[in-house]
Amino acid sequence: MTTFTRTVDGRQLPVPGTYAIDPMHSSVAFQVKHLGFSKVRGRFTDFDGTIVVAEEPLHSAVEVTVQADSVDTAQAQRDAHLRSTDFFGVEGHPTFTFSSTGVEFGEESLQVHGDLTIRGESRPVVLDATFDGACPDPMGDATRPRIGFSATTTIDRYEFGITFNQPMETGGLLLSKLIRVELDVQAVRR
Q1: Which of 38, 45, 16, 17 is nearest to 172 (CA)?
Q2: Which single residue of 52, 125, 135, 188 could bond 61 by disulfide (Cβ 3.0 to 4.6 Å)?
C-alpha cells in the first residue's frame, strides 16, 4: 500500500508535491461579532489555489485566490451590501489573495506566514494551520494523494480599508473590526 504521509521532526506531514485545492470539498469561511454579542457567519463559494509541499517542509508555499463577489451569508440583502464599496468593493477589487512567505513549526500546528490582499491593501497575516490527514484520492486517480488542512486567523478589517460601521444607541458599534477566518481545505496532488 502506498503511503501519502511522512514523519518530519516527529510530525505527520503529507508527501512532497504540488496540490490543487479542491473547492468542492473545501471552505473559506468567516465570522464577525454583530451588535457586540452575536456572530454573523459567511463563506466564499468561488476560490482556487495551490499548496506546494516541499521536501523541506519549511520551504512549502500556499497561493489562494478568492472571488470576492462569491460571498454568501445566507441573506441576499446583506450579501449585496458586503459586495458594495462599504465593504469589499468587488467592482474595483474582484479578488482577495493570499501568498505565503514562510512556514514555521508551532507547538501543535504549522504557522503559515503570508500576505493577504483585500481591496488592494496587502497586510501580513499568520495562518494557524493543522495537517488533518491524507488518503488515496477516492474521486479520481487512487495513486494520487488527497490531503487535508485546516487553518484559522483573525484579521483587523480596518487595516484593509473596510471601515463601515454604525454606532449603537446602547454604546459600542454594530460590527466588530476583527474578523475570524476559518479554512478547511482538501487538495489533490497534480
Answers
A1: 38
A2: 52
Report the alpha-carbon angle 12-111-68, nearest 5: 115
Model confidence, pTM: 0.93
Residue 171 CB partners (closer than 8 Å, separation 6+)? none
Strands (E), the chain: 5-8, 11-14, 17-21, 27-34, 38-44, 47-53, 61-67, 71-72, 95-105, 110-118, 121-136, 145-156, 175-189
Residues in Cβ contact with 81 at an 8 Å cutoff, skipping those fewer than 6 apart: 87
Query: Rounded CA gap, 67 and 149, in Å?
Result: 21
Contacts of 70 (CB under 8 A, 6+ apart): 44, 45, 46, 47
What is the domain range of residue 96?
Answer: 5-189
* Mean pLDDT of the residues in the chain: 95
The amino acid sitting at 109 is: S
Give dist(CA 180, CA 154) in Å, integer: 4
Q: What is the CATH number of the domain that holds 51?
A: 2.40.128.110
User: 107 in helix, strand or coil?
Assistant: coil
- Number of domains composing the chain: 1
pLDDT in tens, 25-70: 999 999 999 988 899 999 999 999 999 999 999 999 999 999 999 9
- Sequence-separated (6 or more) residues with CB below 8 Å from residue 106: 128
